[in-house]
Task: structure prediction
Amino acid sequence: MDEEEIGILSDPNNMEQVSDILQRFLKNNENVFSFPNLSENSRALLWTALFQQLQNPDAAPVHALSLASVRVLSRDKEGLENLITEKWITVLIERAGLYNFEVLDEESAVPIINIPNKDVAMEALKCLCNIAFNSEVARALCAHTSIAQGLVARMRVYKDIPFKEDIMLYDMKLLFILTALRRDIKLKIRCELHGMDYLISCLNELLLEASRTEIVGATSGLVEGGPHYFLNDSQQAIACENLKTQFNLVLQATTEEEDEAMYMKIMPVLTALLYAHTTCEEKLMELRINIANLLTSVPLTFYPFLTPQLNSGEKAQYVFDGRNMDALQALVQLLQYKLTNTTNTKYQYENLSPILTVMNKCARGCREQRKYLRQVVLPPLRDVHRRPEQGHTLRNQMCRLLTTPVTSVRDLVAEFLFVLCKEKVGRMVKYTGFGNAAGHLAQKGLLGGSEGALYSSSSDDSDTDEYLEAQPNIDPVVGCTMPPRVNPFEGMSEEQKEYEAMKLVNLFDKMVSEGVVKPARVGPDGRPQPIEHVLEFREHTPNRPQS
Result:
C-alpha cells in the first residue's frame, strides 16, 4: 500500500474508495505475516488511518474491513510495541462488544450484552488476540481496562447470542492468551471474577448442546445408551481453548475449600469430555491432550471420579470391577497415540510427560484404575522369546523408554510400570528385564531386592502356561529366553584360553584406569556404591560352601 492510498484512507468522505483499497489490500495480503516494504512512518500512518475510520460512526460500512486490515497488520511484530496506544486498545474492546454490558446486581443479576454486528465483533476479537499475543505493551494496557470483566460477563449469557459459537471461540482464545501471559489478569479472573466457575459452566452447556450418540457401530466404538457425545469442529475448538484457559487458572492456588469445590465440578465435565467423539482422530486427540494437561494439576484424591461406579441399567464399552472405564481407556488411547507418533527424543518430554503424569496419578490414586491399567499395559506374558523392548505393544513401547536419554520421561515411565507391578522388584524385572529396570531400581535403592510400598495381598498375577514352560530358560537380564550360545573357548588349548582371559583383564583395567567405567557394588542401602579396588568385591559377600 503506497502513501497515496494511505492518504485516501484518512478521508472520511470517500467511503467507496476506502472500501476498494481495503478489499484490495486484504486480497493481496491474505496469507502475509510480515510487511518489510512498509517504512516505519508509513506503518504508523496506516494504523492511524484505520483507527480513525473505526472511531468515525459515519464510517460504519467499512469498520469490518478496517478491522480485518488491522488483523492482518498485527501479525507482524515489527514496531508493534511503538504503535499500540491505550485509545486503540479501547476502540478494539468496544468494537468486540466487551464494554457493552451492565451488571445490575453483584451476585444474581444477568449481564446485558449488546453485540450489534457479528463481523465487526469477530474481527475486533481476532485483532485483540493477535495484538495481545505479539505485544507486551498491549497486554499491559489490557490489564488496565475492564476487558477481563467483559469476557467473564459474556460467558454468563452466551445462550442469548445468536452467533455464540463464533464469539465463544475467540473469547476463549483471548482469555487463554491473557491468562497465559499476564499474571495480574489471571489472578483477577480466577480470584475476583470466579472465572473457573463460568468456564466449567460453558463446558457443561457445550456438552448439553452436543449431539448425543446412542448407536452401535464398530467404527464409532459406542454402545447403545452409553453417555457419549459428538462434538462438531466448532464445539471441539471451543472446548480446547476453554481447557487451555482452565489449565492456566488452575495453576494459581487458592484456599483448600475453594479448590476442593472446584475440582468436584471439573471432574464430571472432564470425564464426559473423555467420552466425546469428534469428526476425526486428529481433533479427538487434540481434545484429549488438553484434558490430560488439565488433569496433571488435579490432585490424586479426585482421580476415582474418572471411573464412576455403574448403576443399575447404565452401560459402558469398557467395564472393570463394576466401574465405567471408558474415560480411562480414552487416556490409554491417547498414550498409545503419543507413543506411536513421538519418534524424536527431542520432543519426548513435551509430548509424553503430561499423559505419563496422568497415568501415574491414575495408577496411584485408584486401585481399580491401577488394576485395569495393569491388564492393558502389562497383560500376562505369553511371548517370552522376544526382548520386552521389541514389538509394538504398549509394554514394548514403554520398555523402550526405560533407556531413553530423556531422564524425566524415563523416570515417569519407570515409576508407572513399577506401580503397576505393585512396587515389587521381581515382578518389575519379569516384565521389563533387569537391564531395563536396573536404573530405576538403583535410584530407589532396590538393587538388593527389597520391596517397596505395601499393596493388597490379593493378586491377579496368574502366569500363563507359555511363561511357566519357558521360565527356567528366561534370562532375567534381558527378560526373555536366549538361544543356546556357542562356547567361544571350544577347540582352544589351555594356553590360548589363558591368553584370551589376560587380554580381557587388560582391556577392563584400561577402561577403569581411563575412567570409562567405574566398578561398583550394591551397598547396604540398595544403591550402587563405587569401589577403589576389585578385591572389595570379596568383602561382605555371603560364605559359600566348600566343595
Observations:
- The mean pLDDT is 86.
- The first strand starts at residue 101 and ends at 102.
- The CA atoms of residues 264 and 302 lie 8 Å apart.
- The first helix runs from residue 3 to 9.
